[in-house]
C-alpha cells in the first residue's frame, strides 16, 4: 500500500468507526457510554489498525502479531469499532455492545477470540502489562511490537510511572506508549485537576518523546509512527486530541465523558459527520 | 529433591525464603520458562543463586511492586512462568489490585510469593508483618492460596505451583531454622490436606508455622488424656471440603490455628464452609488478635499473640471444657 493509499484507507476507517461508535452509543440506550474518550481516539486507532500494526485479520492470534493494549479502557467505542473495521470482529458482534452478559461490555474484557488482548477499566495497569509482553518478545526471540494507549488523565496514576521508569532503564524499545491527550478528565481540565507537562516528564523519565499536534490528522499520525526512533529507548507518542471529536456539541464538553445519547442527538451528530465525509481529503 | 532427614535439616536451616530460593533454582534448571522477579529484595528472597545462574531470567523491577505484578502478567500470557517475590504485605496490599486484575480477572499464570508473612520480620515491626494477606487474597476469585508447613513443604509447594496452570499465592511463614514437620518424602497435592494424626475428641486444622506448634499442642493435650488430631491445611483455597466433612463428622471440637488474623484466614475459610453444614462441631479459631500490638522478636510476637504450643493447648482445653 502506498502512503497515499494508506492515508485514504485509514481515513475511511475512521469515518466508518465514528459512525459506528455513535450507533453503538444510541443502541446502548440508558446504559450510556463513554463517548468523549471513545471519539478522541478514533484516528489513533484507525492509524494503528489501518496501517501501523502488523497483524493478519485471518490469523490474528499469530505469535508474531503486534499487540495493542487499551489501558484507558473507557475509550472502548474507539476500540471495538477498530476491531470491526479491521475485520477481526463482525458487525453483528460489534452491536452486542453493552448487552447483559455479552462479550463487549462498557470496558473491554480479555478475549483472544475477538482480538481483545487485555481486560481494562481500572486505570494505570496497562503499561506494566505491555512491558511484560514486550520483554517476552525479546526472551522468546519472537519479534513484535507492543502499543499501549493511555489517557492524559490516566497519567495521574503512580503505577504508570513505575512502568515508565522500568521501560526506560531496561531499554524496552519494542514498546510504544500513546497518550490520548484530550486535556479533559472526569472532573474537568487536566490542567485544573493535576496538571503536568507530559512532554517534559516523559522525556525526564528517559523515553523517546514524539509530539503529535493534531491527533486527528492521520497524515501526521502516520508520519510520527513511521519516523525512526531513538535506539534503545521506549517511545511515547503524545497526541493532542479533542474529547468528543467530530460532534460539535460533544467536543471539549465534559458532559459527554459518559452520557446517554438520544435519537435526536444521534441524528444531529450523524448529519454533522456525514457532511464532513464529503471533505475527507482535507484531513 | 527427595525429602529425607538430611535435606529437611538443610532446608530448615535456610528458612522458608532460603528453601524457596533453592527450589526455584532447581526447577529453573529444567524449565526455561521460569522467570523470577524481585522488587529490590533479591538477596532477602533467597534468589542470589538464581540470579547468578539465570541472569537473563531474573528481573529486578526496583521498589515497585505494582509494576512487578503487571509485568509478570504480561510475561505469563506469553507462555512464561513468572514468580514475583517480596514481603507478603507489599504484594497482598500494595499490589492488591494488580493481583485481583491480572491473576483474578485475567487468570494470568503468575505465582505470587509472599515472603516473611506472619511475624517473621521481627523487629521490622507492624509495617512488615503479614497477618491480613490470607483474608485479602482469599477474597479474589481464581487464585489458589497455599501456606506451606515447613521448609520441605515450601520446596514441594514451589515445585507444584510451577507445574500448576493458574495463578497461585504462596504464603511463606517462619524464620531461619524453621521447625521441621516433614523428615520423609510424602505426597503433596495442591488442594489436598494432609492428616498428620487422627483424634477422636479434638481435631486441629493448621497452616504454615502453626502446623508444627499444633502438633506440639496436641501432644500436650494427649498427656492430659485427650485424643487430638492435626491436619495440615496447606491449601487454604480451594479448601479441602472432603477432609473437613470427614473430620467434622466425628470430632467434638474442631480448632483452626494460624499465624494470621482471626479475621478471614484459615479459620474464616473453614467457618464459611461449615456454615452451610448440619451437625458440625463447635469451632475454635486461634490466630492473631484483630489489633496492632507493639513489635518484637519472632518468638516474642508468637507469645504475645498466644501462638506458642502451651498457649494453644491451654486455649483448646479451656474451650473443650466449656462444651
Question: Which terms would index this structure?
Answer:
heterodimer; A: 283 residues; alpha/beta; Rossmann fold; two-stranded antiparallel sheet; 42% helix; globular; B: 323 residues; 2 domains; seven-stranded mixed sheet; five-stranded mixed sheet; 12 strands; Transketolase_C (chain B)
Please outline the helices and strands.
The complex is a heterodimer of chains A (283) and B (323).
Chain A: H1 3-27, H2 35-40, H3 42-52, E1 67-70, H4 76-85, H5 91-94, H6 126-140, E2 146-151, H7 158-169, E3 175-181, E4 184-185, E5 188-189, H8 190-194, H9 198-204, E6 208-212, H10 218-226, E7 235-240, H11 263-278
Parallel strand pairs in A: 1-2, 2-3, 3-7, 6-7
Antiparallel strand pairs in A: 4-5
Chain B: H1 5-30, E1 34-38, H2 48-53, E2 58-60, H3 65-76, E3 81-87, H4 88-94, H5 96-105, E4 111-117, H6 133-138, E5 144-146, H7 151-163, E6 168-173, E7 194-197, E8 202-206, H8 210-222, E9 228-232, E10 235-237, H9 241-250, E11 253-261, H10 266-274, E12 283-288, H11 298-304, H12 309-321
Parallel strand pairs in B: 1-2, 1-3, 3-4, 4-6, 5-6, 8-9, 8-11, 11-12
Antiparallel strand pairs in B: 5-10, 7-9
Q: How many β-strands of chain A, per DSSP?
A: 7
Q: Please state the structural category of chain A.
A: alpha/beta
Predict the CATH topology of chain A: Rossmann fold
Oligomer description: heterodimer
- How much of the polypeptide of chain B forms β-strand, as a percent range? 15-25%
Count of discrete structural domains of chain A = 1
Q: Write down the secondary-structure element order of chain B.
A: HEHEHEHHEHEHEEEHEEHEHEHH
Q: Give the helix/strand class of chain B.
A: alpha/beta
How many strands, which pairing sense, and closed or not: the largest β-sheet of chain B? Answer: 7 strands, mixed
Q: Which chain pair shows the most residues in contact? A: A-B, 26 and 28 residues
Please provide the ordered H/E string of secondary-structure elements of chain A. HHHEHHHEHEEEHHEHEH
CATH class of chain A: Alpha Beta
Q: Count of helices of chain B? A: 12
- Low-pLDDT parts of chain B are none
Going by CATH, the architecture of chain A would be 3-Layer(aba) Sandwich
- CATH homologous superfamily identity of the largest domain in chain B: Thiamin diphosphate (ThDP)-binding fold, Pyr/PP domains
> What percent of residues of chain B adopt helix (DSSP H or I)?
40-55%
User: Over the alpha carbons, how many angstroms does the gyration radius of chain B reach?
Assistant: 19 Å
Termini distance of chain A? 19 Å
Indicate the proportion of strand residues of chain A.
5-15%
Query: Could you say what the CATH architecture of the largest domain in chain B is?
Result: 3-Layer(aba) Sandwich
Amino acid at each position: 500500500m502506498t502512503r497515499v493509499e494508506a492515508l485514504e484507507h485509514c481515513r475511511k476507517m475512521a469515518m466508518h468507526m465514528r459512525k459506528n461508535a455513535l450507533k453503538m452509543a444510541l443502541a446502548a440506550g440508558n446504559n450510556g457510554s463513554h463517548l468523549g474518550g471513545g471519539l478522541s481516539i478514533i484516528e489513533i486507532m484507525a492509524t494503528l489498525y489501518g496501517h501501523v500494526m502488523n497483524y493478519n485479520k485471518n490469523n490474528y492470534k499469530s505469535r508474531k502479531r503486534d499487540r495493542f493494549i487499551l489501558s484507558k479502557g473507557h475509550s472502548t467505542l474507539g476500540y471495538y469499532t477498530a476491531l470491526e473495521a479491521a475485520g477481526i470482529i463482525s458487525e453483528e458482534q460489534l452491536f452486542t455492545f453493552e448487552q447483559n452478559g455479552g462479550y463487549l461490555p462498557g470496558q473491554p474484557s480479555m478475549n483472544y477470540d475477538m482480538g481483545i488482548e487485555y481486560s481494562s477499566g481500572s486505570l494505570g495497569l496497562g503499561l506494566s502489562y505491555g512491558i511484560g509482553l514486550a520483554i517476552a518478545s525479546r526472551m522468546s526471540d519472537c519479534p513484535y511490537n507492543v502499543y499501549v494507549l493511555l489517557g492524559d488523565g490516566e497519567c495521574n496514576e503512580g503505577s504508570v510511572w513505575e512502568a515508565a521508569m522500568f521501560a526506560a532503564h531496561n531499554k524496552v524499545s519494542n514498546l510504544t506508549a500513546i497518550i490520548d491527550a484530550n486535556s479533559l478528565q472526569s472532573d474537568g481540565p487536566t490542567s485544573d485537576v493535576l496538571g503536568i507537562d507530559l512532554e517534559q516528564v516523559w522525556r525526564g523519565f528517559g523515553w523517546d518523546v514524539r509530539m503529535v499536534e493534531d491527533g486527528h490528522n492521520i497524515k501526521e499520525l502516520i508520519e510520527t509512527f513511521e519516523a525512526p526512533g531513538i535506539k534503545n529507548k521506549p517511545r511515547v507518542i503524545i497526541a493532542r486530541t479533542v474529547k468528543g471529536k467530530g460532534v460539535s456539541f460533544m467536543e471539549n464538553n465534559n458532559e459527554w465523558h459518559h452520557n446517554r445519547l438520544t435519537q435526536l442527538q444521534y441524528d444531529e451528530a450523524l448529519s454533522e459527520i456525514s457532511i464532513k465525509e464529503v471533505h475527507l481529503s482535507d484531513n | 529433591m527427595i525429602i529425607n532427614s538430611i535435606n529437611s535439616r538443610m532446608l530448615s536451616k535456610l528458612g522458608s525464603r532460603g528453601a524457596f530460593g533453592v527450589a526455584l533454582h532447581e526447577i529453573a534448571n529444567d524449565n526455561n520458562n521460569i522467570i523470577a522477579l524481585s522488587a529490590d529484595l533479591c538477596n532477602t528472597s533467597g534468589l542470589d543463586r538464581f540470579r547468578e545462574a539465570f541472569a537473563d531470567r531474573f528481573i529486578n523491577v526496583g521498589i515497585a511492586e505494582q509494576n512487578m505484578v503487571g509485568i509478570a502478567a504480561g510475561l505469563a500470557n506469553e507462555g512464561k512462568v513468572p514468580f514475583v517475590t517480596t514481603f507478603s504485605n507489599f504484594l497482598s496490599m500494595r499490589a492488591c489490585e494488580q493481583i485481583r486484575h491480572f491473576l483474578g480477572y485475567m487468570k494470568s499464570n503468575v505465582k505470587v510469593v509472599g515472603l516473611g508473612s506472619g511475624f517473621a520480620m521481627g523487629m521490622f515491626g507492624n509495617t512488615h508483618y503479614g497477618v491480613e494477606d490470607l483474608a485479602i487474597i482469599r477474597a479474589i476469585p481464581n487464585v489458589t492460596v497455599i501456606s506451606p508447613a515447613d521448609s520441605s513443604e515450601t520446596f514441594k509447594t514451589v515445585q507444584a505451583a510451577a507445574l500448576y496452570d493458574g495463578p497461585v499465592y504462596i504464603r511463606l511463614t517462619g524464620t531461619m531454622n524453621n521447625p521441621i514437620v516433614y523428615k520423609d518424602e510424602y505426597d503433596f497435592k495442591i488442594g489436598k490436606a494432609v492428616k498428620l494424626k487422627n483424634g477422636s475428641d479434638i481435631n486441629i486444622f493448621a497452616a504454615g508455622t502453626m502446623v508444627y506448634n499444633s502438633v506440639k499442642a496436641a501432644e500436650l493435650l494427649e498427656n492430659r488424656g485427650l485424643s487430638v488430631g492435626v491436619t495440615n491445611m496447606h491449601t487454604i483455597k480451594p479448601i479441602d471440603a472432603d477432609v473437613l466433612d470427614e473430620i467434622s463428622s466425628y470430632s467434638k471440637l474442631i480448632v483452626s490455628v494460624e499465624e494470621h488474623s482471626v479475621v478471614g484466614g484459615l479459620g474464616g475459610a473453614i467457618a464459611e464452609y461449615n456454615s452451610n453444614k448440619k451437625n458440625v462441631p463447635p469451632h475454635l479459631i486461634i490466630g492473631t488478635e484483630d489489633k496492632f500490638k507493639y513489635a518484637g522478636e519472632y518468638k516474642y510476637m508468637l507469645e504475645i499473640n498466644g501462638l506458642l504450643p502451651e498457649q494453644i493447648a491451654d486455649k483448646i482445653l479451656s474451650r473443650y471444657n466449656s462444651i
